[in-house]
Specification:
With 395 residues, the chain is mainly alpha-helical. The chain has one domain (3-307). Helices cover 59% and strands 6% of the residues. A three-stranded antiparallel β-sheet has the order 2-1-3, with helices on both faces. Helix 2 crosses helix 4 (48-63) and helix 8 packs across helix 12 (218-230). The longest helix is centred in the last third of the chain and has 71 residues, at 309-379.
């Protein structure tokens, strides 16, 4: 089972957002490799108080995400859901537009919303590897000319950091394919898909930029270009806004949390992000902006001046958060009742066991008395029986 599948199982199992937040915070490494964002959470969970504060904020963030959207992010099948039961939701989401900042996820999928097959990914990785080696100018000219207006040769690998990122991704993705469960059928879509997560004050504009390869993620761009080279018009980038972010203080944590449950980091071949999320949230290191935790902060960040939807979104998230806390309290109350009942049953069982033990001890004591009596009788050589018989004139 691949790391992507193991992570999905870990995040889809919790029954409450509080438990999911606990799983998000839990440090887990695979093959001894620390996750890209591990230090981010380590600093925020340095002590019990810090961890509780971080976990509480995580619950608020998760409460703002519709449940089936959250499940789609975890399982990596959000594009398919967007064509089915979430079609109306995302149609309404699109109408909000860029009025409220948000966290988005990008995926490489076919026209039905399915990830590339393992077989196709193998071919795409071979083209990527050839491109990164930079020894085929004709291949580079074709791939570099597919997207955007930048026609610079080797534009997806003109920096060593880009080439290193591609090489690492290729190696991890091959490992992922080989370890994916039921990998004998290479024509099946890759389980969990391949995603990229980001934040923007104008999320739909940012998604369009990614589709046009403008200030985008180099691994995702090269993968899509190589997919277009190998399988023309079969695969492309699709983006979805999964949650709106109304609190500037929670932006970094929101992006990191969604990145973690989406498994969007390139380590272990999970996704296209090769830098930690939340590290380049534009302008939020500016103290005046941090001090302003209302809609003014976003206006300062040059977001859309029409922020009328922010108040509604704040109210919605508050309502969802309160509902989640209430549900958690009810569950804990039910668990307390069940625990008390179990304790009472255990105590009753213990009393029964004690009674059985006492009875057994009494029986053992009587048996011991009878044994000693028999031994005494055998030691008298049956003289008492003869005497009794004589007394009764039986002899």
């Amino acid at each position: 089972m691949s790391v992507r599948e193991q992570e999905a199982r870990r995040y889809i199992t919790p029954t409450t957002l509080w438990d999911l937040a606990e799983e998000i915070l839990r440090p887990v490494s695979y093959a001894g490799i620390e996750r890209i964002d591990e230090k981010f959470f380590e600093y925020r969970c340095a002590d019990d108080a810090s961890k509780f504060a971080t976990k509480s904020l995580l619950v608020e963030i998760l409460a703002g995400i519709r449940l089936d959207v959250l499940q789609g992010v975890i399982l990596g099948d959000l594009p398919e859901r967007a064509r089915e039961n979430l079609a109306v939701h995302f149609e309404n989401e699109t109408r909000i537009g860029d009025g409220i900042p948000g966290i988005y996820t990008n995926y490489i999928v076919d026209e039905e919303g399915r990830p590339p097959t393992c077989s196709d990914i193998g071919e795409i990785l071979e083209v990527m590897e050839s491109y990164v080696k930079r020894d085929d100018d004709q291949l580079a000219q074709y791939i570099d000319g597919l997207y955007g207006t930048n026609r610079q040769l080797w534009k997806y690998a003109n920096k060593k950091s880009y080439r290193d990122a591609h090489t690492t991704f290729i190696a991890f993705m091959r490992d992922r394919i080989s370890s994916t469960s039921d990998n004998t059928d290479e024509e099946q879509p890759l389980k969990g898909g391949i995603s990229e997560v980001g934040f923007s004050i104008t999320p739909y504009k940012r998604i369009r930029d990614h589709k046009c390869h403008v200030l985008s993620t180099c691994i995702m761009n090269l993968f899509e270009a190589c997919a277009q080279y190998s399988f023309p018009e079969k695969y492309s980038v699709e983006g979805y806004v999964v949650t709106r972010t109304v609190n500037p203080l929670a932006v970094a944590l929101s992006e990191v949390a969604v990145s973690r449950i989406a498994c969007s980091y390139s380590d272990h071949g999970n996704g296209f992000n090769y830098h930690r999320a939340g590290a380049s949230v534009h302008g939020l290191n500016n103290r005046p902006i941090i001090s302003a935790t209302d809609q003014t902060a976003w206006a300062t960040l040059q977001a859309n001046q029409d922020m009328g939807g922010v108040e509604d979104e704040i109210a919605r998230i508050k309502e969802c958060t309160q509902a989640e806390w209430k549900r958690l309290e009810e569950q804990l109350r039910d668990e307390d009742v069940a625990f008390d009942q179990a304790n009472a049953a255990d105590e009753e069982h213990v009393e029964l066991l004690r009674a059985e033990v006492d009875l057994q001890k009494r029986e053992e004591a009587r048996a011991e008395e009878w044994r000693r009596f028999e031994e005494e009788m055998e030691g008298d050589d049956n003289r008492w029986l003869q005497e009794m018989a004589e007394l009764c004139d039986l002899k």
